[in-house]
Known about the structure:
The protein is α+β, with helices and mostly antiparallel strands. It folds into 2 domains: 2-98; 161-399, Heat Shock Protein 90 (2-Layer Sandwich), CATH 3.30.565.10. Helix content is 62%, strand content 12%. The protein is built from 10 helices and 7 strands. The strands form 2 sheets. Strands 2-4-5-7-6 form a 5-stranded mixed β-sheet. The chain has a two-stranded antiparallel ribbon with strand order 1-3. The longest helix has 81 residues, at 48-128. The chain is rod-shaped, with a radius of gyration of 51 Å. Bound molecules: adenosine-5'-triphosphate and magnesium ion (MG). Magnesium ion (MG) is lined by residues 295, 298-299, 355, 359. Adenosine-5'-triphosphate (ATP) is lined by residues 170, 173, 295, 299-300, 303, 329, 331-332, 334, 342, 347-350, 355-361, 384.
Amino acid sequence: KILQQEEGNMTSVVGANQFHTMVEHIERYDELLGQLNQRHQNRPSSTTAHYEKIEVELREHGAEMMAVAEDVVAKERSSVNTMLLMSQRIPLVFLMVLLIVVIYLINFITRQMLQPLNRLMESTRRISEGDFTPITPRRRYRDEFSELAMAMNHMMNQLAYRHDLLARAQKLKAVGTLTAGVAHELNNPINNIMITACMLIEDYQILSDQERLEMAHDLLNQAERARKTVRSLLEFARESEIQTVLLQVKDLIEGTLQLAHNQIKLMNVKIDRHYTSNLPPIHGDRQQLNQVFLNIILNALDAMPEGGTLTVTASHAKEEGFIAIDFSDTGTGIPEHILPSIFDPFFTSKPLGKGTGLGLSVSLGIVQKHGGEIRVKSHVARGSTFTILLPKAKVPAQLQTKEQVQTS
Length: 408
Ligand SMILES: Nc1ncnc2c1ncn2[C@@H]1O[C@H](COP(=O)(O)OP(=O)(O)OP(=O)(O)O)[C@@H](O)[C@H]1O
Ligand SMILES: [Mg+2]
């Protein structure tokens, strides 16, 4: 009965076969005992010989049962041992799994944190170089990093807006500087017009038709000269959308020199030009590049209050794929201790009200936006050279026709 109750447990330890053999042995044992008892009651006179056969069988089954019982104990012991061993190993395995999970989690978290951080760091480097292209979030869902990226985009919008305001302010200041020269230059044609007009009125009767015609032409020429001067200044000062076109460096420089012509004359400065022939065009915005050249020319004029020479050179740069434009003056030069600061916004060595300190900072921003850079070499009392590097436009040679290459 007990065996049948424990059948489940027993079979799991000794196996079904062994269990059944054991049950068979016990049943047989029980049966033999029963027989022995019966014989004893029915025929108490039976001789030992009668009992012997049953006894032998009983012993056999008893021995078999003992063997099975020992086997059961041995098996149980070994299963207890295995369980003990297992119970020792389980924490180890668990620890290993935990370690792997922790390593994976650390790896996952650092990747989740470091990757966006690295991207943001890369973006800040880009922003500090003046590239205000918005950061595009990589993830679809919103997390702290995308919030930060959005905040940085907003900051860049504001920076770009303020940058534009500064550039505009700087341009107007340059226009202000030019006005003195322009006013001076306008005076001449206006004077000429007045003199010629007066002569025409006074001597109208005695002048021949031919002479009158010549004087009228003279008036027209002088008026045209005045209009050209005003127009080039207005064109430079005018607000306009950024327009990237193919430009010839020589035309650009000449246009700017024309703009500053009166100022240059006023300051008693001589211009030396050296243009390498057949320079390829560049891609850029005419007005912005004019502003850069004008800033550098005006700085050079400021550095030569007693007059001097400004040498302008346009050639192939040592750097592959770039054009170098040098503006070399014979002015005061820049002391070494202020050289690292001259491109900083609002840095100026000029008296209050004269310089805003924005010229070079704005110019550098524009040149960098065009994929170029500005370099300076200077010797105190000997002069300075500002070199502007601009990338040559990558266009097939057949496209560089007169129509595409805009001229000033
Ligand atoms: N050719 C030059 N020779 C000597 N110093 C120069 C020259 N160009 C620039 N500098 C120095 O660099 C400083 C900064 O120049 P930047 O053009 O940025 O401002 P600024 O000329 O002082 O002001 P603004 O351009 O608004 O008139 C100048 O104040 C001057 O000290
Ligand atoms: Mg300046």
